[in-house]
Amino acid sequence: MVDITFVQPDGTRQTVQGEEGGNIMKLATANLVSGIIGECGGDLTCATCHVFVDSAWTERLSVRTADEEEMLEATSEEPTEASRLACQIKCAQELHGLVLHVPETQR
């Protein structure tokens, strides 16, 4: 199992466990993580699973694809270098302990 921690804008933390290879957006919605909606079901056609990757983890993730970059332009909060769509991140053992911050505007 892979532990992923979601941090709300008020600092509240929620750690959930996912199967290796699973989609982090689906993990978040299955565990009712506030602010992660995933309207498109992970098809990369919305931006309702926008997260900010904690600075300790940004270098450990794969690079954003051109499609993800395009969708990040449609987020409710201004994207940064730490912005990712949770649907594009897969649970992997090397990401055990990953920390993701939920944007204020998605609450």
CA distance, first residue to last residue? 27 Å
The arrangement of helices and strands along the chain is EEHEHEE
Uncertain ranges: none
The best one-word shape is globular
Mean pLDDT: 96
Q: What's the gyration radius in Å?
A: 12 Å
State the helicity in percent bands: 10-25%
**DSSP helix count?**
2
- Strand tally, please? 5
Largest sheet: 5 strands, mixed
Give the strand line-up of the largest sheet: 2-1-5-3-4
Percent strand equals: 15-25%
- Coarse structural class: alpha+beta
Description:
The protein has about 110 residues and is α+β, with helices and mostly antiparallel strands. It is built from two helices and five strands; from the N terminus they run E-E-H-E-H-E-E. It has a five-stranded mixed β-sheet with strand order 2-1-5-3-4. Strand 1 and strand 2 form a beta hairpin.
Brief digest:
This protein has 107 residues and is an alpha+beta fold. The protein is 13% helix and 21% strand.
Task: Lay out the secondary structure.
Elements: E1 2-7, E2 13-18, H1 24-30, E3 50-53, H2 66-72, E4 83-85, E5 98-101
Parallel strand pairs: 1-5
Antiparallel strand pairs: 1-2, 3-4, 3-5
